[in-house]
Amino acid sequence: MKRWQLNEPSGLDALALTDAVLPTLKAKDVRIQVAATAVNYRDYSSLLDPVARQIPLPFTPNSDCAGIVTDTGSDVSLVKPGDRVASCFFQQWLDGPCSTDIMRSALGGPLPGVLATDIVLTETGCIKIPDYLSLVDAATLPCAALTAWNALVTIGQLKAGDTVLLLGTGGVSMFALQLAVTLGINTIMTSSSDDKLSVAKQFGATHLLNYRTHPDWHRHVLEITNGMGVDLTLETGGAGTLPQSMEATRVSGCIVLIGILTAGEINPVALMRKSIRLQGLYVGSRQQFGDMLSHFAEHRIQPIVDSVVPFEQAPLAYHKLATATHVGKIVIGIE
């Protein structure tokens, strides 16, 4: 097998394609021939500074992949050779709330990642995918799609007629948009690019806001919602955008924090004054993944794939991600 490996903490230039030997299968293990692996901003950050993320070197990046089961251990019952599966972001989060032990079971740090031709996971660390999805499509789901599902459905418990504010057009926001459309939820989407907003409109966004031409975008959100504010804000920016998100969210609404892309200071007065719930979120469980896949299959949701980079040119995928010119997911394909 071959895998991409970061050997020293000097950024993307230290990422090297290496030969490796797969570990011997244990009773509950599954061997998977990887067909595609999607790139998340987390993967890019880990490559830039693995020391800050306490990732031991050498390490293989990426948490999200899909492929074909080629072999199983002696006590595996959930999948069989030939099954099409996707990886689970957390190898030990089956159901219920997150925990410290679960946090230690994330692929791509601290556990080895999936940017390889073949991998070994536990049988509960992967999940069967619907027949209608290609392996490239399925590779986009483990992190971004599940995060969106957890935010809107599990935490937000949004219903038809509610309104969600989606910041940016990254993977999580675009999946949240697609889910919202199938759930009858109104969407307000922001971006610095009119071209990206045009794509979002094609996928059903209800309202569009360019935050460069409307730097006081929270005021426009309030106008759109007749002064009430949105029921839930999917906060990808962090400290830099959180103050406006608090103003744009209704009394007793919810802000789900999934990103920290911008710097700034946070004054919590608005949270208290408006009784807003601020909830941190880090992907989701295997049970939630299964529920989401059922919803995807019912509504035939098609993941938005921006581009597919050949496995031999894998570093290019992270450079493309860094430009922030994409809409949807960047995938690394393995022939």
If you had to describe this structure to a student in words, what would you say it looks like?
The protein has helices spanning 41-48, 100-103, 135-138, 141-155, 171-183, 194-202, 217-224, 242-248, 269-273, 286-299, 315-323, and strands spanning 2-6, 15-19, 29-39, 64-72, 84-87, 118-122, 126-128, 163-167, 186-191, 207-210, 230-235, 249-257, 277-280, 305-310, 329-333. It has 335 residues and is an alpha/beta fold. The chain folds into 2 domains: 2-140 and 303-333, Medium-chain alcohol dehydrogenases, catalytic domain (Quinone Oxidoreductase, Chain A, domain 1), CATH 3.90.180; 145-280, Rossmann fold. Strand 14 (305-310), helix 11 (315-323) and strand 15 (329-333) form a beta-alpha-beta unit. The mean pLDDT is 95. The strands form 3 sheets. Strands 3, 4, 5, 6, 7, 14 and 15 form a 7-stranded mixed β-sheet that branches.
What topology does this entry show?
Blueprint: E1 2-6, E2 15-19, E3 29-39, H1 41-48, E4 64-72, E5 84-87, H2 100-103, E6 118-122, E7 126-128, H3 135-138, H4 141-155, E8 163-167, H5 171-183, E9 186-191, H6 194-202, E10 207-210, H7 217-224, E11 230-235, H8 242-248, E12 249-257, H9 269-273, E13 277-280, H10 286-299, E14 305-310, H11 315-323, E15 329-333
Parallel strand pairs: 8-9, 8-11, 9-10, 11-12, 12-13, 14-15
Antiparallel strand pairs: 1-2, 3-4, 3-6, 3-15, 4-5, 5-7
